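Friendly challenge for the regulars: who can give me the structure tokens for this chain first? No prize, just bragging rights.
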Amino acid sequence: MVRWLAALLVVVSGAQAAVVVLDRHTGKVLHREGAVNSMGEPGSVIKPFVLLALNQAPALGCQRTLRLQGRNFNCAHPDVGRPLTPVEALAYSCNQWFARSALRVAPRDIASQLARAGFSRVRIPGGTEERQLQAIGQWGVSTSPLEIARAYRWLAALKDPVVEEALRAAVTYGTARLAAVGGMDVLGKTGTAGSGQAWFAGFTPDLVVVVRLERGTGGSGAAPVAAQYFRRFAGNPALLQVREGNARVAMTLEDYVALAVAGEASGFRSLEALKAMAVAVRSFARKNPGRHKSEGFDFCDSTHCQHLAGSEPSASIRAAVEATEAETLWYDGSPAAVFYHRHCGGRTETAGDVWPDSARPYLRSVPDPFCLSNGSASWQARIPASDIAKALGSDSPSPLVVLDRTASGRVRTLQAGPRRLSAEQFHVAIGRVLGWQLLKSSWYDLQPSGDGYLFSGKGGGHGVGLCQLGAAARGEQGQDYRQILAAYFPKTKVGINAQGITWERRDGERVEVFATGAPGDEMIPALADDLVAAVERVSGLSVTKRPRVVVYPAVRQFSDSTGEPGWVAGSTQGNRIRLQPAATLNHRGVLREVLLHEFMHVVLNENTRHAVPEWFDEGLALTLSGTSAGDRLGHREAKARVSSLIRQYGRETVLGWLRTGVPEGAGHAGSRSR
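First reply, four minutes later:
Bragging rights claimed.
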């Protein structure tokens, strides 16, 4: 689990929070924190569903005051000087309008509509006041943030024009204005429950976000927090949207690289060959962002983009990805166009001979004797002439001959009766209709055989760029990943940026530090050594695994690797800490605090033997390190909860829960501060 601390802190009055982020297209939960299944009154976030039940309600004037069952629900919105339309009533969250309109429909109508939207705990109102209270979310409905998120996804799919206009108006000029995000179409609604909980629920074309604070207001409390999550999951270009099967998953670039290397090169035995594949995979992703933009995501999980593993990448693959973190192949100031294939048969192919639009100076045919150490991968395929005609869309078979070959020896063009076509066109036609297993490459001889043709070939794949079997052999025979990449992509350079900056290792006595020599990097080893000792002294726990600190030269590169927005300063996984530029953090005056907090997570991670809740891990790190509450919503409350537990049970007992788990019920001790 990634833990992070921001240099810019979001203060939400110490409120405990629950947050749900859904992929609007698939319903997959992209993010959840806090008590997302905890039930309670929804307040005004239920009003869009009530508006559906009211069905063409007329404009009504607001009388400003509303008292139901001895409670005041007076309106505080602007007086527009005329009756409010349904759109305005929802945008301003006019309690008067909804309470009066509820009496125009049957008592069961609103409850039935809520049930259709997926609300599981809905009561049928009896008297007039119960009907009115239900219409403003203060009676007869109990729901959770997760249920609200799914209901709003249902609402988004319904595409009711009046409701959509009203929710957009709420963000544009109504109660949810602070949920607005520049360049993003946010529709949403705020609410405040009778118990004092503050809500926001809304959606964009891609996301559904629900925020519930234990206390506060929807407009000034929950709405701006929701804006952060919209930015993080939709507005942060560092998070890739990847289709996995029928689902769409948000992930960091480095996690994508690990999954793709596992999917494309899991059989590699050499760490250096795995590193070469990691750089190639990362370069492909950097060169081809938004490959499926028209479909609403960046990459698919098939070989059309890069095949992703269905299981956790191995330790060696993770090591290769971490060792090359952020490194990309560059040519003339831009990420290089990268291709790779299974077996080149002893010589790679020139890209322009396969795909004319892909010609590049560094994608030329080169000999590869290392590939032949695994044999030439000879293959044969007999294909009936009638099947070839079917694949080419012809009514009857035609003579098939090879017209010419590329410089490497592969087929360039063929003649099928009157039709002339490239080897790539022929390969695609055969593959789509007859299966991709027949023609394994375009390096083959062709001769008539019975009622069809015999294809005798070698190698596997298009032959352009990196040969995977050749790269594996090069690694096993001692070449490092830079030599491997230079062999297949001559004239390119490996680096963190276009200038070819690379990682430099600057170790302290207790830590490994990877940096680029940027200003401020020189202070990290000594500071890190001091802080490792400090967290051991404060926590009473030991750090035995040598921590690694990676310091990025630019905020954008930090975000690309971690998937965190620019206002997050540090990120920790296991014993690996990644930081924004040291000079940037030092200028803000937070370098020591950020590192101290992250090292506290390192020592806790190493000494945790039993799964513990995220609030406990974060709260313990904040409490022991003495650092301020982090950027993530609920950190202040987590710190307060853990501090209360330490006062109640004692420090050693609470630390012991790292080994045994947090006892049931202990998490509620002192969890509310009023």
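The mean pLDDT is 88. The chain has four domains: 3-235, 242-369+464-495, 378-457, 503-594. Your move, everyone else.
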